[in-house]
Amino acid sequence: MDINLDIEKLIALRHRLHENAEVSNQEEKTALIIVEFLEQFKPNQIWKNIGGHGVIAQFKGEEKGENVGFRADIDALHIAETIDLEYASKTPHTAHKCGHDGHMAMVAGIASYLKKNPLKKGNVYLIFQPAEETGEGAERINKGLSELGIKLDYLFGLHNLPDFPKGEILTKTGTFAAASRGMVIKLFGKTSHAAEPEYGISPVIAMAKITTEMTRIHRTIDFSDLSLATVIHSELGEIAFGTSPGYGEIRITLRAMKDEDMSILIDEAENLIHKYCEDDGLGCEISYTEVFPSTTNSDEAYNIMKDAATSMNLNFKQLKTPFKWSEDFGQYKLQYKTGFFGIGSGMDCPHLHDEFYDFPDEIIEQGVKMYIGLINYFGLHS
Ligand SMILES: [Zn+2]
Ligand SMILES: [Zn+2]
Question: Measured in angstroms, how far is the CA atom of residue 329 from the centroid of ligand 1?
Answer without folding.
Answer: 12
